[in-house]
Amino acid sequence: MSDEPRPSATTSAASAPPFASKVLENVLETVLQFITSPRDRNACSLVCRLWNRTESLTRQHLSVGNLYSVNPTRAVTRFPHIQSLTLKGLPHSASLWSVPPGWGPGFTAWAKALVAGSCAGTVKKLVLKRVTVSNSDLELIARRLPSFHGLTLIDCDGFGTPGLGSLVENCKQLRVLDLIKCHIEYDNKGAHVDWISKFPKNNNCLESLSFECVQYGVNLDSLESLITRSPNLYRLRLNPAISIGQFCRLLLWAPQLTHLGTGAFCTHGNDNEEMKVKDVAAVFGSMNKLISLSGLSYIKPELLPAILHVCMQLTTLDLSCTTISAEQLKPVIHHCHNLQIFWVLDTIGDEGLKAVAATCKDLQELRVFPLVLSVESEGYVSDQGLIHISEGCHKLRSVVYFCQLMTNAAVKAMSVNCPDLTIFRLYIMDCHRPDHSTGEPMDEGFGAIVMNCKKLRRLAVTGLLTDRAFELFGKYGKTIRTLSVGVGGNSDLALKYVLEGCHNLLKLEIRNSPFGDGGLLAGIGHFYNMRFVWINSCRITVRGCREVARRLPNMVVDMIGNGFGETSLLDDDELVEKLYMYRSLAGVRDDVPQFVQIL
Amino acid sequence: MITLISSDKRKFHVLEEVANQSLTIRDVIEDRRGRRRADRIILVTNINSKIPEKVIVYWLRHFLMPEEIAHASMSHKKAEKLKKWEAKFFDTDIDTLNDLILAADSLDIPSLFDGACEKVSDILKNRSAEEVGEISKIENEFTHEEEEEEIPSENAWVWRNEFA
Question: Which of A217, A275, A280, A321 fits A241 for a cystine, CB–CB 3.0-4.6 Å?
């Protein structure tokens, strides 16, 4: 018999569980390590002090839906060991319907907090969406975050090639640099930096590089060298400055890619590099892991057969950067049986959509963008296209559709045939148009969507709408989190229905609607449950905004308009051109531009 | 063969190679190698008899392929089978899981420790703070000091994941 009991007891199993006791803190840490959803972690943080502290210390991923809603220093103090941070800035509509340049939201305060906090050593990844990022912000994070290796910027602006240059140069082990739909600024002297050449020669861990939105040509030799020394590269999205000949040369080195953006699918008028279909096809033929294809800008239709090799394997096809007709699309789409995500311009017409519906039975997401976004444009797709799609693609979860001619019957068919829709964004470009066959408002169609699609999260409505539609949204739209309204309703009642009925509404975006202070004030009891409200060109006055600010002290009421900026001068009756209201624990932001008045 | 004795004095005989999955036991055996037979008896005082049974069952299942697990070279089918078996093994009440965690911690069996902790985390998911506190038998000693008042509103306003 051993002389001492080994292993010895540490605590008694009969009392509190081990993860609750201070003796075995490692148990709590391990349990929390398996809890990743912010909701669950938030619950754990409220259990007791020990749990709160342990949860804070072990939170690895932080996602902030509005970067103005909290003080960045507070964020990194509470969560000192985060490895990745996602920040969102402007509301979607605000970027779509243009806020004045310089409005913000700036990343600078967050960048400074990140490098000053103890998370400076742990932060590896940043994802920023609709945020203004300066060149010096990029340099700061590259120089002062030693573990940093992944940056994704979506719809961001404020930076140019000098910032990219210092990022890739200073961040020695960069793995991910994805620039998606960003607006790249010219630097002061109008020159730009050859940023691709600044990747260190010993960086061989690049996994993803996307620069479709960087308009400048890049140094091809440096890019080729970078690709050849990056065996882990799985995503590469080139910009349209790269011609098809250059593309073929580069891609010979990267048959392992799973995600590819081709850049231009033409020769840029350089006769010396006349490409034959079989040469391009050979490049694609070697890419047997490819599942996502985008780009194909300025496509030369005779080169299209070159991609037929890979169509069978594709789950994502994004043709939204290229003009293509139904005739050109058909032979390609017939091979795309496995497509789940398809983005395209409306030039494919209703006929093109019919072909999609006939082949792509697994389609989950469809976006049809307009070639010309204009009130006058008749558009190339109509209610017929939507009907085809709804009849062929029952698995659809997400639809974005720009058109001019629409009917209630088509929208209703969509709701019946695709009940799993979580996102439905229908943009009738001339927002005042009724059902073009009956002349009725679009109320019944959109009403059917909220009634039949039980998982609907996001709804964007346009076209002629009366208060009736909003009544239906309030009554049935219990799962809606984001509602965008482009022209709608007859009165404040519409707004009241939505604010009082849609309990889960987080984000509300409205423009050109007849809503005034009465409608706004109907939301007083609900605004603290929402992330933001964005109202553009309605009938809200300064008086209404002042009332909201007075009654809800944690609501930041950001009014944007000419002549705004000096409080005392504003008349109560003045109309507020753009209104952005959001709840915030940080108070008023410190980067308020001239044309903004915050209450 | 070594003998484990639980807190309620029950004896469990188990092959040394099997029990070696406990790093604590392996060290003890190593320390006492060459000594009397009695030294091959190990008291585990913090564990009642229900738990050694479970631990030994766990050891036996894992004993067959410890190398493979370590090298992650297990065939897909085998791995799936083991996963299924573990899901069933850990499908038990929270008190048993707590005892398993204690046993795994003191006997130093990392995979058992992680597996039981993961199962506990599953039980805590999709619950309110109050429910988590109840399951964990924790008194919430939060006062209403200023800093602590910030936390719930921060959770709701800033860190909430709307798509959860």
Answer: A217
